[in-house]
Amino acid sequence: MTEQPERPSRVGEVLADKYRIVRYLGEGGMGTVYEAQHAFVGRRFAVKILHTELTRADEMLERFTREARAAGALENENIASVIDFGHTGDGVPYIVMEYLVGDDLAKLLAREGQLPVPRAVNMIVQACRGLDAAHAAGVIHRDLKPENLFVCKRGDGSDLLKLLDFGIAKLAKADGEGLPSVTRSGAAMGTPYYMPPEQAKGAKDLDHRADIYALGVILYEALSGQRPHPGDSYNSILYHILTQPVIPLGSLRRGLDPDLTDVVHRALAFDPADRPASAIDLARALAPHAGRQITPMRSQFELRAVTRPSAPTSAPDLAPADDAVQAGWTVPLGSPEPPGSPRETASKPRRGFKRAALAAAGAVAVGASIVVWQSASRTASPPPAVRAPDGESVRPPRGEAEAPPRPAPPSGADGGASAIAGAARPSEPSPAASSPERVGSGAPPSQRGSHKPRARGNPAPARRPTFDKANPYR
Fold first, then answer.
1. Could you tell me which of 465, 472, 470 has the C-alpha nearest to residue 375?
2. Residue 88 belongs to a domain with what CATH number?
3. 219 and 149 housed in the same domain
4. Is 90 considered catalytic here?
5. Could you tell me if residue 165 is left (phi over 0), alpha (psi between -120 and 50 degrees) or otherwise beta?
6. Can you tell me the distance from the alpha carbon of 220 to that of 216, in angstroms, rounded to the nearest whole number?
7. CA 259 → CA 191, 253, 265, 276, 285, distances in Å?
8. Is residue 445 part of a domain?
9. Where are the alpha helices (DSSP H) in 158-273?
10. Best CA proximity match to 33, nearest among 57, 60, 1
11. Is residue 454 part of a domain?
12. Mean of the per-residue pLDDT values for the chain?
């Protein structure tokens, strides 16, 4: 698309003192798109500026503003982000969007013709995700066509599809009522090839199933290279939509799975009630033909508690809407897991781990109780304390009970350390204490004569338990 000479170029202008227009990218029916660079951080953006001659039409101004409101409130990876809105120095409104690198689907189809089935299906599944977010927010696009599906690349080289141009989107109020229309009553808006029959008839109220029909037409075209309702003019196309059945998809491309062609034809049903009930229902029906793992999709619009399990080992089976499987495998709080669901499957190894941990803790407790029982069985009443001639206490011979532990000294670093060491582990009989001699230089000075010996005949308190050197729990 070339730049119109009657419209002056805005390259070099700086909008709002931060968006510097770098180069012309293209234009559509409502505005011209430029590449812009942030004057401070240097990030690239796409700036769509309304055509100057349309600023005098209230309908176009309202529609342009509506695009900013509709897309700006949606945060989804399959919807092109609208970041800012403002007016140029001469009062023309503009929209600042994320900068995308790639091609729209119309150019891709013109260059490559029929797409491989997995690639075409994957693109439409991504479009369903973007539409699901828009419909949940009360936004109906009403102008889906290949030009408004932009194909980028992820880091791994796979396709990333984004919805563009919500210029004639229908917005819903918070109370569920539609906002006033910016088009004349009975006027047919949109591109004729992708209009559902109710839109072709000029129906005033359209619901989300109009977008589902348009996605069916786009997938039909991506698989066959043709459109389901041909025509040489605007009116002939509308006439075919309203009076003729869809050309069978299987007759235009041989070898397609009959189940896939059935899904496409259901999306193109004349009666909206015969189409998939939601964008996610359409995505679920298409997922088996995607040729690669498809992550789970929302089934309802209510907010739910999110629990994300570990990555599934195989492509999950996309359950029907009533299975309450949502993005990130979300389920209602307090609800049991459906059999075979990723969360239910992922939780099984975790329950097995808990059982193993409880069994190990029980084994440790049994071992500890055995050690305590063995220690208690070795405990015997100690003999009376032996008094040395000089008044100091002595240790009993090896094999007899030790004297009770001396109380910790009231102060002093040496005594404190000895007390702590004694509390940390039980002492063993030393070679120096194997004979009835008084404590000599082998004991610390702070322990020598630290207490008076017990009088004969007084009952001795229970001594500290001794342990077998071969005991592994010592």
1. 465
2. 3.30.200.20
3. yes
4. no
5. left
6. 6
7. 28, 14, 10, 14, 9
8. no
9. 197-200, 209-224, 234-243, 258-267
10. 1
11. no
12. 73
Is residue 135 located within the same domain as residue 247?
yes
The SS3 assignment for 223 reads helix
Q: How many residues does the chain have?
A: 474
**Is there a single domain that holds both residue 138 and residue 266?**
yes
Q: Is there a single domain that holds both residue 43 and residue 109? A: no
% of the chain with per-residue pLDDT over 90: 40
- pLDDT tens-place string over residues 399-450: 444 555 555 555 444 444 444 344 444 444 444 444 444 444 455 555 554 4
8 A C-beta contact, residue 45 and residue 95: no
Residues 6+ apart with CB under 8 A from 70: 134, 139, 166, 169, 171
Q: Are 31 and 64 in contact (CB under 8 A)?
A: yes
| CATH number of residue 183's parent domain | 1.10.510.10
353 CB neighbour count, 10 Å cutoff = 10
Tokens 């000075």 -> residue: 445
Asked if residue 81 is part of any domain, the answer here is: yes
What is the identity of the amino acid at 124? Answer: I
d(CA 191, CA 128): 19
* pLDDT at res. 173: 42
Residues 27 and 83 in one domain: yes
Distance CA 298, CA 281 (A): 9
Q: How far, in Å, CA of 439 to CA of 445, rounded?
A: 10
Distance of alpha carbon 276 from alpha carbon 213, whole angstroms: 9
Catalytic residue among 58, 90, 103, 143: 143
Asked if residue 42 and residue 121 are part of one domain, the reply reads no
Domain annotation covers residue 354 = no
Helix orientation angle between 117-136 and 279-286, rounded to the nearest 10 degrees:
160
What are the tens digits of pLDDT across the range 70-87?
778 788 999 999 899 999
Domain extent, residue 59, equals 1-99
